[in-house]
Amino acid sequence: MLTILRKFKVTIAVILLLVVFIAWWDSSRGYDDSVMANVPAYSDLDENSILQQEDVKAKLEPSYLKYMKTSAGEGAKDADSFTQSIASMDYSAISPQGTKTEEKLGDQDGPVLALLEENSWVEYKITIPRDGYYQIGMSYYAMPGKRASIVRSLKIDGEYPFFQAKKLDFQRMWHEVGAPWHDNQGNEFNPKREELFGWQYRGLRDTEGKVSEPFRFFLKQGEHTLRIEAVREPAAIGQIDIHSPTVTPSYTEVLEEYKNKGYKPVKDVQIKIQAEKSSLRSDPTLKRLEDREPLTEPFNTKASVLNTFGGAAWRTGGQWAEWEFEVPENGLYHIGARYGQWFLNGFPVQRIMTIDGKLPFKEANDLSFPYAAKWQIAKFGDDKELYQFYLEKGKHTIRMEVQVGALGSVFEKITDTTHKISLLSREVIRVTGTNPDPNGDWRLEENIPNLVPRLNMMARDFDDAIKELYKLGVKEGSSDISTIYQAREQMLSMAMDTTTIPSRLQAITDLQSSLGLWVNGLAKQSLQFDYLLVQSPDHSWPKGEAPAYVRAGTMLSDFALSFTKDYSGVGNVYGDEEVLDVWVARGRDWVQIIKQMIDEDFTPETGIKVNVNVIPAQQMQVLLLANTAGLAPDVALGVEGEVPIDFAVRDGLVNLSKFPDYPEVAKRFRPGALIPYKYNGGNFALPENQNFNMLFYRKDIMEQLGITEDKIPDTWDEVMNLIPALQQNGMDFFYPHAANNPNGAINEFAPFFFQNGGDFYKNDGMKSNMDSPEALKAMKLWTGLFTNYKIQKQADFYNRFRSGEMPIGVADYSTYILLSTAAPELTGWWGMKPMPGIRQEDGQINRSTGGLGQTGMIFKSSKKQEQAWKFLKWWTSADSQERFGTELESLLGVEARWNTANVEALKRMPWQKSDIDGILEQWEWFKEREIVLGGYYTTRYIANMWNEIVLNGKVIREAVDEGVREINKELRKKREEFGLEMDKKNTADQGGGLP
Q: What Pfam family is a match for this entry (predicted)?
C-alpha cells in the first residue's frame, strides 16, 4: 500500500512539474500567433450580441477607459482654446453641514471654502461654449486630519461620469525634521517626519495611477453643475480650473525648440543628489532604507546606514517624492538615477518626472525602469538618444510620481475578463449544481447561450493582453506572464470540449483567484533609488553595481560581524538595570516600527529607557518557560488572548486594577473586550487588537436575485428565508465551521449563545451554563443551519465568494483584508454590514459576537511595575495605535491593516468611512466569553456537540447534556488543583442536567 501511495505521489509531482514547465515554456518562447489561428476575432458588435445576458456591472458606472471609448465612438474630440477658473467662494450650493469659510490659509488672502466633514459637498456652475473633452484641476490646502491623503468625488450634472470619479486623491506634503539619529549600536534611523501645510495644485487623475494623463471629461455645450464631495479628510478649495486638454510637446518638438533658441550642452558637470535626502514626499511612510550593496552611497561596513529611498512602500499610484538641487550654469543636461527594480519579475515600472512642477516633454510622463535583480543606472532617454533637459543656473526640483500607466489598460482587460469568467461559472452552477457528476451529460451548450463564443472571446481577451504586455517591454521568460498564458489555455481547452467544464469548476475558481492576485501584485510599482544624477553630456556614467569580488568581501565582512553583533534587540539596546524589558511576539518589521515609536516618542516623554526583543509569534510557551526560570520580561506584547489567565491563576501577572487610573484606561475599549482578562476580581491584560465578524455580500449577485442593499438580512430569520432562494440558483450561504478546531467551534457557537442572552459559565466560573434554555436555543439555531438548511459544512468562503458560489456569508477580519487586497475584480461589488442577530422585544437586533485578539500584560516579577504601566498606557493610547496602524499599513500594505482594539484609534484610521461605521456598529454588541480554569473542556465539548448533532444525528438535548457533565467535571478538577473556592451547592452533582 505504501508503495502505491509513493508511486501516486511521484506521478502527481511529475504532472505538476509538467504543468509548470509548459507554462514557463509558453512564456519564455515569446508570443506564438499560431495558437489563436482558429479563434475568431470579435468586434464590439459581436461582443454585444454574444453577451446578451444581463450583467449587473452595467448598472454601475463605466471605467474611465470605457467612458473614453464610448464618447470617442460618438465623435468626441478635444475642445480648443478654453480656460475658465471658478473661485472657491463662487459656489451655487453647499451642504447644510460640514463646510466652513476659512480666512488667510497659507499665503492666500481672502476667504476660501473648506469641506471638513465626510459627505459634505459644494456645487459650482460652469457654462461650456462647445461640445468636447475638457480637463479639470483644483488648488487645495490640506488641513489637519488623520494623516491620510484627501479624497474627493466629482459628480457632473448629478452623476459620476465613470467610477474613478468616486475617489480622487489629493496628497499631503511631508518633510523630515532634523537629521537622522543613531542608536547606541551605531545604526542609523529615520528622522521624524512632519506635515508641511501649504497650497498645492493637482489635475484630476486616476488615484491608482492606471491612467497616464489627467482625466478628460466629455461636456456638451451649455450649463453644467459640478459637485465636489468630501470622502475623506478635511481640506480647503482654492479655485477650480476647467480648460481644454493640455497637450504636452514630444521630446522631438522640445529638442527642435532648444536648437532654435541656441541652447548648448554644459561641460564637465556632475551633480549627485542622494535620494535618501528627499526634501518633500506625499506620504510620511516614504522614508530612508538601508542597502548593503558596496557601491550604495554612503556605506558603512560595521553598522546600518539608511542610504536609499523608496523600496516596497513607494508603490501606490499618486505617491511622489521631490528632491532639490542646484546647477552652476544655463544649458542642456542629462538626467539619470541609480535604482533598484527587483520587485516585479520581468516587468518595468513607471514614474512621472516633473522639473520645477512642470512636465518637460511628453515622454517624461512615463519614464520606464526595467526589471533586474541588481542595481542599475537609468539614463533617461529612448532607444535613439538620451534626453537633454534645459536648466537655468540656480535651484530646481525634481519630482517622481508613481503611476502604473500603460499597464492599466491590460489590468482592466484582465479584470473584465475575470468578471466574465465568474458570470459564466455561476451559469454553469445553475445547470450542474456545485458538486456535479463529471460523467453526466449536462448539455451545457444547449442550456447556456453562446457558450463556445464566450469562451473563445475570453481566450482572445487574454491573448490580446499577452501581446500588449510584450509591446510594453515585458521580458520574455517572465514567470509572471505565465498566469495569463494558463488562463488563455484553459479558455481554449474548455471551448474545444465543453463536456469537461463541470469537472473544472474548482480550477475555474482557482483561476479567478490567480488572476486577481496577478493584477493586484503587478499594480504595486515599487522602486528604490540610491541617487539621482544631473550631469553634462560629456560626463561618463557610474557603474550600477560593484564587481563580484567586492560584493563577496562585503558578505564575508557581514558574516564575521554576525558573531559579535547582537541581533535579538531592536534599536537602542541598554545594559543598565533601569531599562524596561519588553518582549514582542510579532514579526521583526512590526517590532522595528514599535521600537522606533518608543525611541522617538515614549522615551523622550517619560525618560524611561526600553529594550525591545522579538520572540516567535504564536509560541507562548517561550513566555511560560521564561517566567518559570525567573527570566520573564517586564512587559509582553502580542500575547494571544487566552494566555493571560493561564499566568494570572499562577500569580504571574500584575493586577492592572491596582493602578488608580485603570478605569480611565479601560474606557478606551469596548467593555466586552475586557471580559477574557478578568479573573478573581482582577484585570490582568489590555487588548491590543480585536477581531470581528461581519456579514459579507456580493452586491451584483444580490441584485440579480432581486435583493437590494436595504434588504440584506439583518436577522437569522431573514437569513433562513434567503437560503432556499440561493440554493435554488445553485448558490449557498456561508457560516464558518472549523473542522477539528475546538477553539474555532466555540467562537462559531458564541454569537448564537450571546444573542439569546446566555453566558458560558455561572457561579463565577465554577459551573458550565451550557445547560440553560438559552444554550439549547442557540445550539438548535447553530446546528440547524447545517441539518435543516443543509449549508455546506466546510468551504473556502473567500474563493467561493469570488466565484459567486457563496455570494453572502459571515466571516472575520481576515476575509475583509483579503477582499480589500487580493480581489481587485470585485472592487465596488461587495459590501459588509454587521452580522445577523436576533430581534429583541424592544425591536433592537442583538448582534452580540466576540473577536479575541492579542494583548499586552505586565509580569509580577517585574521590579519596574509603575514604569511598565506607563508603557502599556502609552502603547494602547489612541495616538500610538493610530500611528502604528498608519505606519504598518504604509510599510507592508493593506494586508497588514492593524485592527486596533482602541475605539478612538479605529475612528482615526484612514480607512473607508463606511467600513469603520460598519465595524463600530458591530462593536456596539461586542462581547467575549469568560476565560476560566478548565475552560478548554468547554471548547472541546462544544465541538463534540456539533459533531454528534450534525454528523451523527443525535438529539440536541442529549448531546448537550453529555457535554455539560464532562465540562463540569473538568472545571471542578481544575479548581481543586489550584485550591480555589468550590461550588458548595450540589457538589455531588457533577453534571447539572438540562431542565
A: SBP_bac_1
d(CA 938, CA 113): 59
Mean pLDDT lowest among 420-434, 490-504, 815-829: 815-829
C-beta separation of 469 from 480 below 8 A: no
> Is beta strand 199-203 parallel, antiparallel or unpaired with respect to 132-142?
antiparallel
- At residue 398, what are phi and psi to the nearest 5 degrees? -120, 130
pLDDT at 981: 75
Q: Per-residue pLDDT averaged across 370-384, rounded?
A: 92
Residue with cell 467561493: 800
Distance CA 341, CA 526 (A): 7
Beta-carbon contacts of residue 303 (< 8 Å; ≥ 6 apart): 182, 185, 186, 187, 188
Find, among 880, 855, 868, 857, the residue nearest to 606 by Cα.
Answer: 868
- Which 8-state DSSP code applies to residue 910? S
Out of 561-575, 605-619, 774-788, pick the least confident: 561-575
Would you say 307 and 299 are in contact if contact means Cβ atoms under 8 Å apart? yes
- Torsion angle of alpha carbons 709, 710, 715, 718, nearest 10°? -80
Q: 936-946 and 742-755 helices cross at what angle (nearest 10)?
A: 80
How far, in Å, CA of 963 to CA of 770, rounded? 9
Nearest CA among 767, 800, 760, 807 for reference residue 927: 760
Looking at residue 862, the DSSP 8-state letter turns out to be -
Question: Cell for 139?
Answer: 488648488
Cis peptide before 836 (omega within 30 of 0): no
The one-letter amino acid code at 580 reads L
Asked if residue 16 has pLDDT above 60, the reply is no
| Phi-psi label, residue 21: left if phi above 0, alpha if psi -120 to 50, beta otherwise | alpha
* Helix segments in 502-655, DSSP class H: 505-522, 548-561, 588-597, 603-606, 621-628, 644-648
Predicted confidence band at 563 (pLDDT cuts at 50, 70, 90)?
low
Give the DSSP H or E segment for 410. Answer: helix 407-432
Instruction: Assess contact for 777 and 787: CB atoms under 8 A.
Output: no
Q: Which of 8-12, 359-363, 953-957 has the lowest mean pLDDT?
A: 8-12
CA atoms within 13 A on the CB side of 331: 17
Dist CA 289 CA 277 (whole Å): 11
Closest CA to 568 of 613, 616, 626: 613
Which residue type does 790 have?
A: K
Bridge partner list, 177: 192
Query: C-alpha angle with apex 634: 629 to 639, nearest 5 degrees?
Result: 85
Strand bridging mode 235-243 / 132-142: antiparallel
Helices (H) and strands (E) in the chain, counts: 27, 44
Are 243 and 82 a contacting pair, CB within 8 Å? Answer: yes
Q: What is the mean pLDDT of residues 215-221?
A: 96
Q: Read off the pLDDT of each residue in 861-866 and give the average, rounded to a whole number.
A: 95
Percent of the chain exceeding pLDDT 90 equals 57
